[in-house]
Amino acid sequence: MANIEIYTQPGCPYCVRAVQLLQSKNVPFQEINAPRGTPEREQAYERSGGRTTVPQVFVGEKALGGCDDLMALERQGKLDAALGIG
Questions:
Q1: Model confidence over 28-43: pLDDT tens digits?
Q2: Contact 64, 58 (CB under 8 A)
Q3: Rg (the chain; Cα; Å)
């Protein structure tokens, strides 16, 4: 299984939802604290191809997007495959 990373910031309800969804899948992931103005946020921006919002989720080097993207993949039944599970 590829390494799963999620860039978040404190107080972000979308980040909380995305983390909860990943937790519900019982997959190991690394949460990276990335408030505005931090090197971690800049890294998320660069890795995502210029997306400025959090959360940003990556499986290996592939960007899955943010909370809405994860939820859409889940509704379509495609999230497990995107995460490399199931």
A1: 999 999 999 999 999 9
A2: yes
A3: 12
Nearest to residue 9, comparing CAs of 49, 48, 42? 42
Question: What are the φ and ψ backbone dihedral angles of 33, each rounded to 5 degrees?
Answer: -70, 120
Tell me how far apart the alpha carbons of residues 63 and 10 are, in angstroms, rounded to a whole number: 21
DSSP state of 33: E
Cβ atoms of 56 and 7 closer than 8 Å = yes
Q: Could you give the CA distance from residue 76 to residue 31 in angstroms, rounded to a whole number? A: 24
pLDDT at 7 over 70: yes
CATH of segment(s) 4-83: 3.40.30.10
